[in-house]
Amino acid sequence: MYKPVRWPMLSLLLCAALAGSALNAAQPTLIPVPPPPMGWSSWNAFSNTINSEITLAQAKAMATNGMQRAGYQYINIDEGWWLGARDKDGNIIVDPNAWPAIAAGERAGDMANIVRSIHSLGLKAGIYTDAGRDGCSTVGPDLGPSYPNTGSEGHYEQDFLQFARWGFDYVKVDWCGGDKENLDPAIQYAEIARAIAHAEAATGHRLYYSICNWGKHSPFTWAPNVGGVAADIWRTGGDIVAPIVANSKNADRKAEFKEVLREFDQAQHPQAQHTGYYNDPDMMVVGMPGLTEQQNRAHMSLWAISGGPLLVGADLTGLSATDLATLTNSEVLRIDQDSLGLQSVLAAEPAPGLQVWSKPLSKTGERAALLLNRTAAAASITVHWSDLDLRDDSSAEVRDVWAGSDRGKFPGSYTATVPAGDLILLLIRGSESPTTTHRPEVQRTGELAFANVLSRFPVARVDIQYVNSGKTLRFAELRVNGQVATKIAFPPTGSGAAPGTVSLEVMMDSSSGKNQLTFALPVGSRTAIQSIAVH
Ligand code: GLA
To answer: pTM for the complete prediction?
Structure first.
């Protein structure tokens, strides 16, 4: 939690002089990064009762209820699909009754069947395993008996190759078994990253990698740089709610908004979320019993401003028109899916429990802002343009996103009354504050350093100007002031020499102009980092 200091003009000039740079340099092309995933996961509404029939009904619902059109695409099968059996060669065996043939010519007990059906609807398919020997059912089965040996430990290469061969596009890897055995998640998940890379190379099939170890051992410090690559998303906390399965002993459970807020808070690691890799605050509970319609909208707003994965946990066949409208609001989805890929930062906390959160968006001068009232009484909250890193000497346009209504143009700031325990999601269009451009000051083989970097923000946005004339992603490791390195992906910028930019949020000491950013580039890298622009 921080409060940005407003720096006088003198400091800005000093900062420019220190960097020997020009203010307001022309902007190179912004290179879009992969957005956070959107889809459905079986756990919250079906627990370990998941089977082919349920999965197919969910996929059909997504394809017909407007969710697919809005951008949702993953149908993710969570725990319960496999009861731990393997054949003599260690291959996974599934129950042929739970996973029968669906189309003519298919063999019962082949997970490729459900994948084909999901793909035939134009959707993608996700599967689930554990990094340890056992899965979560041995720790405390939610419904039904405990079934051991549902983890992939000892079978990483074999299982992830199998998932790719079945045609799955996404794999979530849980931690119950790993935790029970006291394994080191950074090591196990790196091994799995390597197994996934081998499976991808062997099949030519991409497996999106979702780490689920509930934030233990700070995955945001190692997951963006695990096994030589980066995991795509990593959970940052526990489950918002235990499964609520209709007509079961769990049917009376209720989701609570305070748990939604807890997981939002735990997910805030903006320094780790960049270039297509995301903190995952858990599957959403929109459409499940417990939250009011307004709380569902607030939940969606928190995930959107956080740039969190939007994985719906509710039964898609039973969503109300209001829940569907909440889940498919195009302006809210645009904030979540913005191609800058950055997370929200706490921009100001004018009084305890009254917060302004800000997410930079890819369009110049555009920000999503959240006025969040965590207190028990209605309160007015003011967002200052300078807190959003926008010029406060010019007006900005304000739009209330859920109301779908433009509020007008306001000089310097905007104030709204926010009900108790509620929030208002705004889209602000203003003028960008000047940035400071730095060129590398030290250059050794494979290492570029930017010294004497000053920002007035403790979490500062940094735009990296680079050229990657290759056809594939290139990576570099960034270290800020000796903090743990994070792996940055540089998408291709095209065949010419025209540079592009990707953006990060880095933790800096905002009271000194002595921050040091060091990029380590692999030997022979064809990525050229030309400069950084610091906000
Ligand atoms: C953990 C995860 C959940 C779900 C269950 C399955 O609790 O956090 O998302 O996958 O395991 O048992």
So the answer is: 0.94
